[in-house]
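User: Could you check the structure of this?
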Amino acid sequence: MQCKKIKTAHGIIETPALLPVSAASYGVWDLWIEKKFPAPWDLAQGTVLSLYHILQYRKKEEILEKGIHKVLKTKKPVVIDSGGFQFMKKNAELEEEFVLGYQERSGCDIGMTFDYPILPDLSPEEKENRMKKSIYNSNLALKLKKNKKMLLYSAVHGHNPEDIKKYIKNLDDGFDGYAVGSLVPKKRDYNMLINVISAAKNEKPLHVFGITGFPALFALSYMGVETFDSWTYLVAAAFKEYIDPETLKRLRLRRVKELPECECPICRDYGLNDFLQSTSEAEILLALHNLSIFLEEMKNVREKIRENELESYILKKGEKNLSIKKAFMIARKYKGS
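Assistant: Sure, the predicted structure tokens are below.
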């Protein structure tokens, strides 16, 4: 096991890495754009934006005119996901030509193909149809792509190894990486997650959509996944939930009288009362604390991989969070088989 490097037009992403999702339509986004607070893309190695959210945002044309990096005021890698999952929930879709065109004109570093996620309760016929449409879009994007600086990842779907292998077999050669989706509804089924990821893993970088609980993050990092995306840090903050730096569990702030000790940059200057205020500023501060914990743990994972001590590190974390130990034991068994 080793840390890898993904080279992009705006720098290197050292893996395994968590890339925070920065939802353009979310209320706190403008305060980050205006640099009133440190932005997620300032703290992490890069960021992920969903095209679904971008298209609802007032700066969507400015992004095309100036480029996503100038709008965000960042020189770090930016990923633009097609937003397939969000469009599915709205019973809507986009043409792959439009998606690819927006990604290329925006100047993003990595574009993700427009996909049709599969849900557990779909009929076999509808599941097959959605997978075929996703594969068609991926191969079309690969054929139409003109921006040589932008990396192109194909979305990949399936709830078992057979589906995953069949899916990848039907993709044309030339993708810079793969991004596995449709796993969020079963994100706590660690056997299924690890089974599917094992089938998807190959020499290309592998991204996993939306699986960001610490048990899965540790287990899938151990399995060799390169990148993850998350907006759990922000969603948790909206519900006034604080990630405990020791147990890595989410605490409901309205139920606690005192915060656990934390050395993150936010907690050095702010406390419980600051987080509990009903303001966008309080939400941002809490989100930045949560993100700091995620990023610190991923930094620790990379360090432990270099030191060949990842297994012992995860097991130690599992002493205070049994779900972490449970997921890791499944991953270790799978990797050793």
